[in-house]
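lol forgot to send this yesterday, sorry. struct tokens for the thing we talked abt
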């Protein structure tokens, strides 16, 4: 059986983070493993607490999984600090992980910081060059590019090109935040070509965990041997259905539906 690993934060509310990733791996028929970088106390109303784990704890989890079970792909999500990013990058290098999907998680929808401000430099310089695919949304791409505003599809293409030049094999800029567009368009740049992935824009507030789910799906498909454009295409279909049938649980922003 193909295997995928997530190195990310736990969402006690079950909609994002490690929980979303493992549900996605299950739905995409790969065996999922995890290393938890931070615990969050969280529900549909927001993040009530963030508890980063020690370097020793994260290292022990990664070693335990990769020295025995191994993996066909890894995705990283919430890494929280520069020191955790450095550790994870060293480990991915040590185990020669080459199907690496990096979701550069920075801020939760409710505004809680999931990556310390000063860690953006470490993300850019240490982790991004190891990536097969990096999946920023528009605010994250803007932060990686020193505060650039990205407001059109052309600017998304330029941003994808500029982030790809930082070292990863490919970059998908997610257009969900581009409110000016009637459709939801994601732009992939693989170093040679641009690909546009277009879907209807679904009107719902229940979109918690979309980024986690999308990047986990790409990792699962890469684990199975799909190439990058195919993996992104499948992930776009998967996340569109997950948003269309998203769940009205709790009193706030509900999660996407992993089994839609
Ligand atoms: N909590 C954790 C642990 C996450 O990894 C993420 C995803 O990026 C979030 C929360 C944010 O979820 P959202 O912004 O989709 O509500």
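and heres what i got for the seq, position by position
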């Amino acid at each position: 059986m193909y295997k995928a690993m997530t190195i990310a934060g736990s969402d006690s509310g079950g909609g994002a983070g490690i929980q979303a990733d493992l549900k996605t791996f299950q739905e995409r028929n790969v065996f999922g493993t995890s290393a938890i970088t931070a615990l969050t106390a969280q529900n549909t109303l927001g993040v009530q607490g963030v508890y980063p784990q020690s370097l020793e704890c994260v290292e022990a989890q990664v070693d335990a999984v990769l020295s025995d079970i191994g993996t066909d792909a890894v995705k990283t999500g919430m890494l929280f600090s520069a020191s955790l990013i450095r550790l994870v990058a060293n480990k991915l290098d040590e185990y020669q992980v080459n199907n690496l999907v990096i979701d550069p998680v920075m801020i939760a929808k409710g505004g809680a910081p999931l990556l310390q401000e000063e860690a953006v430099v470490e993300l850019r310089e240490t982790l991004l060059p190891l990536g097969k695919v990096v999946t920023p949304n528009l605010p994250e791409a803007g932060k990686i590019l020193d505060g650039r505003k990205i407001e059109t599809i052309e600017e998304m293409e330029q941003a994808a090109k500029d982030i790809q030049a930082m070292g990863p094999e490919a970059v998908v800029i997610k257009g969900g935040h581009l409110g000016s567009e009637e459709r939801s368009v994601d732009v992939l740049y693989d170093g040679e070509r641009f690909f546009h992935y277009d879907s209807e824009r679904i009107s719902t507030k229940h979109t918690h965990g979309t980024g986690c789910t999308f990047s986990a799906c790409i990792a699962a498909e890469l684990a199975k041997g799909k190439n990058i454009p195919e993996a992104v295409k499948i992930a776009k279909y998967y996340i569109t259905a997950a948003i269309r049938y998203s769940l009205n649980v709790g009193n706030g922003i509900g999660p996407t539906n992993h089994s839609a």
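The mean pLDDT is 96. anyway ping me if u want another try
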